[in-house]
C-alpha cells in the first residue's frame, strides 16, 4: 500500500505529486501488479485534499497504462515500472558524465541544471503543463 | 461512543410508542428547566388551593363558628381575624395570585428563553437548517407551551372555583368579592386566555427584537399595558344594571361601575355636597340618586366577552409573529 | 453528477430599507459534487451569501436556487454551519446528536456523526457550554454531516481549530465529498487554508463576485508577466506594478503574448491578492462548459461519473467485509 505525502510548498501540482509518488512506489517495488491503490476516500481523509485531485491523478496513471479501474472493486496496479537497473549501460554513461562535470569544476546545482535542461529538451511530455501549474 | 448509541436503543425498545419524537423531543429537552419550574409552580399553587379546600377551610370554618360569627346581629368579634383565617386566606390568594402572574411569567419566558435567546445565539437558524421549516419550528415553540399553560392554568382555575364555591358563608366572612381583579381572573376562563396572550406577546417581542433582554422588557411591558387597559375596560364590556332611589344612594351590590345624582331632566350629575339642607338639592334640581353596577349574574357574560377579546388579541399577535418570521426567512410551509 | 447545486442570478441583499447592500448583483453557478471556496476579506458578503443559499434570508433582489428549487424547499438536502457555530449550550454532545436524529427523520446517520465527535476525544456526556471553540466546531460539523447533506455550507469552518484538528476535519469533509459526492461550500478569509481542498473558487469583495469558476480554469485564465515596462496591449490588466524599468502584472491574456514578456501561471494566493488590491478590475465568471481549459473539463465530466461510482462501490464492498 502506498501513502501519499502532499508538499504544499513544492510548487508541483498536487495531482502530479500523487502521480509521481505512485510511480516512485512502482519503481521501488512498494507497489506491484495486482495491488490496489487506496480509494479516493482514503487518500483525501489522510491528506485533506480535494477528491477530484486524486481522481485526476488516477486517471492520469490509467491513461499511462500503469493502473486500471475495476468497476466496483477499486483501482489496481497493472504493471510495474521498469526501473533502469543499476548496472545498465545508460547509468554507466551518466556516471561517466557526472565524473567529467565534477572534474570541470561544476557545482551540484550546475550539473543538475544542465541535466534538467537536457531532460526538458527530450522529454517534453504531456504533463509538463501540470508541472508548472 | 458505544455508550451513546446503546443507551437510546435500549430505551426505545421499552418505550417506543410513548417516546416523544421530532420537535416535541427537542422542546422537552431544550426547555427542561422551564417545564420543571412550571410543574413545581402548579404543584405549589394547586397544593395550596387543595389544602385550602380541605383542612384550610375546615380550620377557618371551626374558627368562624367558635367566634360565633354565625349569629346574626351586631357581633364585633367577627371583625377580628384568627390564625386559621389568615392561613386560609393566604393559601387562596396564592392560587389566585399565581393565575394572575402566569401571563407575565409566560411573556417573560417566551421573550427571553423560548425564542429571544435562540434568535440571539443563532440556534434558531441551527434548527431551521435541519429538516424543520421556521414555520413548523415556531408552531412547535408555541403549541407545546400553550398546551401546558392551558392545562396548568385550567387546573388552578378549577381548584380556585372549588374553594370559592364550597362555603358561601365563609366567603362572605372573608369579604371575597367576585369582581376583585385577581378573583375574577382566577375564577374563569379569562385567566387561561391571558396566559396564552402572555405567551404570544413574548414570542412576538422576541421575533421583533431578536434579542432576549429587550424582548423580555418589551413583551412584559406591552402585556402589562394590555392587562391594565382591559381591567379598566372590564366594567364596560357588558351593559350595566342601573338602580335609582329618590332620597339616598342605592345600596351597593356587585361590581360598582358608577354612581351619582339625577336631575329632573334625567341628566346624570356628580353627587352634590349638601349636608342636610333640603334647599340645596332643589337648587341643583336633583330629584334622585342612581347607581350602575354588575350583579353577580353578569360574571359569565363579562368573563366570556373579555376572554373573547384576549383570545382575539392573542390570535392577532400570533398571526403577526408567523407573518414576520415568514417574511424574514421566506419560509416554505 | 453534472447537475447544478447552486445557481444565483442577480442576487442581492440589503439590510434595512435604506441600509447597506451586503451583497449585490451576484451571479454564478456551482455544479453538484464540487468543493468550492468562498474567499474574500471580512465584510465581503460571504456570510450573507451563505445565509441566502441556506434559506435563512430572503433575497432583496434576484434569485438563488439550490438543486433547482428555492433554498427553503431544499432544506432537507442541505446543512449549514454558521460562523459562530451555534449549538444549544444546555444539551450534552450526545443529546445534540440526538437532536440531529430527531429533527432529520429518515436522513440522520449516527454512524457518520459519532466518529467525528469521538475523533476529537470528546466525552458524549459533556455539556456544550463547557466545550472550547474548536470542540464546538467539531460537534457542529458532526451535526451537519450526520444529516447526510447533499450540499454542505460552512461559514469559516476552520477558524477555531488547531492545525491538527483542521487537517483531520478537512480530511473528514473531503472523505465525505469523495464517498457521497457531497457539494461542499466553505468560506474563509485565509485562502491558503482552502487551496488544496477546493476545486472551485468564488472570490468576493465589497459585496460583489470578483471571480467565479473552476479553480484550474481561473488560474489558467490569468498570467503573471514580468518584463520591461511597456504597453500590455489588448490584454485585461488586473493589477500592474512598475519598479524602475521592470513591470510586474497579472493579466488576462486576450490573444498571444509578446515573446519578450516572461510569463508564469499565478498561484491562488497571488490571484486572490491581486484582485483584492484592485477593486476596479473587471470580474470574471467561468463555467465548466465555456471555460478556457476546455480539454481538462470535458475530460473530467466524462470520466468522473464512472470513477466516482467505482470508488463508492469499492468502499461499500470494503464495509461489507
Textual characterization of the structure:
The complex is a heterotrimer of chains A (133), B (333) and C (321). Chain A is built from six helices and two strands, in the order H-H-H-E-E-H-H-H. Chain A is mainly alpha-helical and 133 residues long. Chain A is elongated, with a radius of gyration of 17 Å. Chain B is of the alpha+beta class and 333 residues long. Helices cover 68% and strands 8% of the residues of chain B. Chain B contains twelve helices and four strands; from the N terminus they run H-H-H-H-H-H-H-H-H-H-E-E-E-H-E-H. In chain B, helix 4 (83-121) packs parallel to helix 9. Chain B starts with a helix and ends with a helix. Chain C has 321 residues and is an alpha/beta fold. Chain C folds into two domains: 4-216 and 286-320, Rossmann fold, CATH 3.40.50.300; 217-285, no CATH class. In chain C, 32% of the residues lie in helices and 27% in strands. In chain C, the strands form three sheets. Chain C has a seven-stranded mixed beta sheet with strand order 5-6-7-3-8-9-14, with helices on both faces. Chain C has a four-stranded antiparallel beta sheet with strand order 11-12-10-13, covered by helices on one side. Chain C has a three-stranded antiparallel beta sheet with strand order 2-1-4, covered by helices on one side. Classes of the chains: A mainly alpha (133), B alpha+beta (333), C alpha/beta (321).
Sum this structure up briefly:
The complex is a heterotrimer of chains A (133), B (333) and C (321). Chain B is α+β, with helices and mostly antiparallel strands and 333 residues long. Chain B is built from twelve helices and four strands, in the order ααααααααααβββαβα.
Assign the structural class of chain B, choosing from mainly alpha, mainly beta, alpha/beta, alpha+beta, or little secondary structure. alpha+beta
Q: Quick one: which chains have the greatest interface?
A: B-C, 33 and 41 residues
* Annotation field: number of helices of chain B: 12
Helix content of chain B: 55-70%
Relative helix content of chain C: 25-40%
Give a quick account of the main beta sheet of chain C: strands, pairing sense, barrel closure: 7 strands, mixed
- The proportion of strand residues of chain B reads 5-15%
Query: What does the average pLDDT of chain C come to?
Result: 85
Average per-residue pLDDT of chain B, rounded, comes to: 87
Number of domains of chain C: 2
Assembly annotation = heterotrimer
**CATH architectural name of the largest domain in chain C:** 3-Layer(aba) Sandwich
Shape of chain C: elongated
Uncertain residue segments of chain C? 290-321
* The CATH H-level homologous superfamily of the largest domain in chain C: P-loop containing nucleotide triphosphate hydrolases
How many separate domains make up the residues of chain B?
A: 2
* Range of strand content of chain C: 25-35%
- Rounded to the nearest angstrom, the radius of gyration of chain C is 21 Å
Task: Note the run of SSEs of chain C as H and E.
Answer: EEEHEEHHHEHEEEHEEEEHEH
Strand arrangement in the largest pleated sheet of chain B: 1-4-2-3
Strands side by side in the biggest sheet of chain C: 5-6-7-3-8-9-14
Protein name (chain B): ABC transporter permease
Organism (chain B): Streptomyces phyllanthi
Transmembrane segments (chain B): 33-53, 91-116, 137-164, 184-208, 215-233, 304-325
Keywords (chain B): Membrane, Transmembrane, Transmembrane helix
Amino acid at each position: 500500500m502506498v501513502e501519499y505525502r502532499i508538499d504544499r510548498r513544492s510548487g508541483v501540482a498536487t495531482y502530479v505529486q500523487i502521480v509521481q509518488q505512485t510511480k516512485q512506489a512502482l519503481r521501488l517495488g512498494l507497489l506491484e501488479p495486482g495491488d490496489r491503490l487506496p480509494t479516493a476516500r482514503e487518500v483525501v481523509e489522510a491528506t485533506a485534499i480535494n477528491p477530484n485531485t486524486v481522481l485526476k491523478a488516477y486517471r492520469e496513471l490509467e491513461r499511462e497504462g500503469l493502473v486500471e479501474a475495476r468497476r466496483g472493486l477499486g483501482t489496481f496496479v497493472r504493471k510495474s515500472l521498469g526501473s533502469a537497473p543499476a548496472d545498465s549501460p545508460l547509468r554507466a554513461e551518466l556516471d561517466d558524465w557526472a565524473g567529467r562535470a565534477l572534474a570541470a569544476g561544476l557545482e551540484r546545482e550546475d550539473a543538475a541544471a544542465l541535466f534538467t535542461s537536457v531532460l526538458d529538451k527530450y522529454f517534453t511530455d504531456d504533463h509538463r503543463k501540470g508541472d508548472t501549474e | 461512543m458505544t455508550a451513546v448509541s446503546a443507551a437510546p436503543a435500549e430505551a426505545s425498545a421499552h418505550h417506543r410508542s410513548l417516546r416523544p419524537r421530532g420537535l416535541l423531543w427537542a422542546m422537552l429537552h431544550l426547555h427542561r428547566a422551564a417545564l420543571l419550574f412550571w410543574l413545581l409552580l402548579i404543584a405549589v399553587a394547586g397544593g395550596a388551593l387543595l389544602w385550602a379546600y380541605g383542612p384550610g377551610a375546615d380550620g377557618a370554618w371551626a374558627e368562624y363558628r367558635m367566634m360565633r360569627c354565625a349569629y346574626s346581629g351586631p357581633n364585633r368579634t367577627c371583625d377580628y381575624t384568627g390564625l386559621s383565617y389568615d392561613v386560609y386566606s393566604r393559601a387562596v390568594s396564592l392560587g389566585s395570585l399565581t393565575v394572575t402572574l402566569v401571563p407575565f411569567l409566560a411573556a417573560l419566558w417566551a421573550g427571553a428563553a423560548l425564542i429571544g435567546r435562540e434568535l440571539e445565539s443563532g440556534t434558531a437558524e441551527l434548527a431551521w437548517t435541519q429538516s424543520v421549516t421556521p414555520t413548523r419550528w415556531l408552531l412547535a415553540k408555541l403549541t407545546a407551551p400553550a398546551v401546558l399553560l392551558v392545562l396548568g392554568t385550567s387546573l388552578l382555575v378549577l381548584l380556585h372555583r372549588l374553594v370559592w364555591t364550597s362555603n358561601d358563608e365563609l366567603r362572605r366572612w372573608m369579604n371575597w368579592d367576585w369582581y376583585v381583579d385577581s378573583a375574577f381572573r382566577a375564577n374563569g376562563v379569562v385567566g387561561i386566555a391571558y396566559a396564552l396572550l402572555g405567551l404570544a406577546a413574548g414570542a412576538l417581542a422576541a421575533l421583533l427584537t431578536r434579542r432576549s433582554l429587550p424582548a423580555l422588557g418589551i413583551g412584559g411591558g406591552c402585556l402589562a399595558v394590555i392587562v391594565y387597559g382591559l381591567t379598566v375596560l372590564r366594567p364596560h364590556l357588558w351593559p350595566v344594571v342601573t338602580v335609582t332611589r329618590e332620597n339616598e344612594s342605592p345600596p351597593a351590590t356587585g361590581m360598582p361601575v358608577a354612581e351619582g345624582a339625577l336631575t329632573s331632566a334625567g341628566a346624570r350629575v356628580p353627587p352634590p355636597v349638601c349636608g342636610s339642607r333640603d334647599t340645596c338639592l332643589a337648587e341643583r334640581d336633583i330629584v334622585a340618586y342612581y347607581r350602575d353596577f354588575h350583579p353577580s349574574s353578569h360574571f359569565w357574560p363579562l368573563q366570556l366577552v373579555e376572554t373573547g377579546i384576549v383570545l382575539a388579541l392573542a390570535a392577532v399577535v400570533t398571526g403577526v409573529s408567523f407573518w414576520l418570521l415568514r417574511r424574514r426567512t421566506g419560509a416554505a410551509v | 453528477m453534472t447537475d447544478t447545486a447552486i445557481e444565483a442570478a442577480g442576487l442581492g441583499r440589503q439590510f434595512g430599507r435604506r441600509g447597506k447592500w451586503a451583497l449585490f448583483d451576484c451571479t454564478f453557478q456551482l455544479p453538484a459534487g464540487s468543493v468550492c471556496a468562498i474567499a474574500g476579506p471580512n465584510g465581503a458578503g460571504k456570510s450573507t451569501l451563505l445565509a441566502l443559499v441556506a434559506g435563512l434570508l430572503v433575497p432583496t433582489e434576484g434569485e438563488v436556487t439550490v438543486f433547482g428549487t428555492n433554498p427553503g424547499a431544499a432544506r432537507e438536502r442541505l446543512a449549514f454551519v454558521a460562523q459562530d457555530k451555534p449549538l444549544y449550550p444546555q444539551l450534552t454532545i450526545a443529546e445534540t446528536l440526538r437532536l440531529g436524529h430527531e429533527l432529520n427523520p429518515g436522513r440522520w446517520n449516527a454512524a457518520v456523526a459519532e466518529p467525528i465527535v469521538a475523533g476529537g476525544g470528546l466525552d458524549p456526556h459533556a455539556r456544550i457550554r463547557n466545550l472550547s471553540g474548536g470542540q464546538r466546531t467539531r460537534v457542529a460539523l458532526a451535526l451537519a454531516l450526520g444529516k447526510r447533506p447533499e450540499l454542505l455550507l460552512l461559514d469559516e469552518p476552520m477558524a477555531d481549530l488547531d492545525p491538527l484538528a483542521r487537517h483531520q476535519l478537512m480530511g473528514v469533509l473531503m472523505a465525505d465529498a469523495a464517498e457521497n459526492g457531497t457539494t461542499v461550500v466553505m468560506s474563509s478569509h485565509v485562502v491558503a487554508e482552502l487551496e488544496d481542498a477546493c476545486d472551485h473558487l468564488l472570490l468576493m469583495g465589497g459585496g460583489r463576485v470578483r471571480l467565479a469558476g473552476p479553480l484550474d480554469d481561473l488560474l489558467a485564465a490569468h498570467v503573471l508577466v514580468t518584463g520591461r515596462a511597456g504597453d500590455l496591449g489588448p490584454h485585461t490588466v488586473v493589477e500592474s506594478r512598475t519598479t524602475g524599468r521592470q513591470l510586474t502584472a497579472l493579466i488576462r491574456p486576450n490573444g498571444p503574448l509578446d515573446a519578450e514578456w516572461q510569463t508564469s501561471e499565478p498561484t491562488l494566493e497571488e490571484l486572490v491578492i491581486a484582485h483584492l488590491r484592485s477593486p476596479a478590475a473587471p470580474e470574471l465568471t467561468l463555467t465548466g462548459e465555456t471555460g478556457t481549459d476546455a480539454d481538462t473539463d470535458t475530460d473530467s465530466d466524462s470520466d468522473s461519473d464512472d470513477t466516482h461510482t467505482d470508488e463508492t462501490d469499492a468502499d461499500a464492498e470494503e464495509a461489507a467485509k
